[in-house]
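Here's what a typical entry looks like (Cysteine protease):
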Amino acid sequence: MAKIATLITDLFEDIEFTSPKEALEEAGHTVVTIDKEGNKAVRGKQGEVRVEIDFGVSDVKPEDFDALFIPGGFSPDLLRDDDRVVAFTKSFMSEMKPVFAICHGPQLLITARSIDGRDITGYKSIRVDLENAGAKFHDEEVVVCQKQLVTSRTPQDLPAFNREIVNLLKEKDL
């Protein structure tokens, strides 16, 4: 089963973390939370969910994980000002490891300069940013690119997003 690095900080979209986490854990995978610094808790922007952070980004290496998950909300924008987080993200894309990003999650992929030529979706407010970064934007509930990158737009897309992230891990036998 896969060990999944989850980049998350305060103001994440509550359901965009909890729903995929449940789907991944039900499929037998391990979800590990990572922020700029460890040993703390973060809160979702709806104020409904509190998440204990397992590790700070300096305490882990991308090679310790099979996949990367980036929930949406304001969290990806707050994380992408940290070069360590950006480098961690870029490593997964460069190594063609599975990456799952929903809503504003692809903002981290933009900053990592790793989506040029890739098929992608995300929240409508970042469409121009994605296109300016060279991505091919699709207004669809879920987009799977090169059997590696899975993206979705909003919480309404979570059933399709969850299905595809679990299927991709199964397909890759992780």
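The chain has one domain: 3-171.

More examples are in the samples folder.
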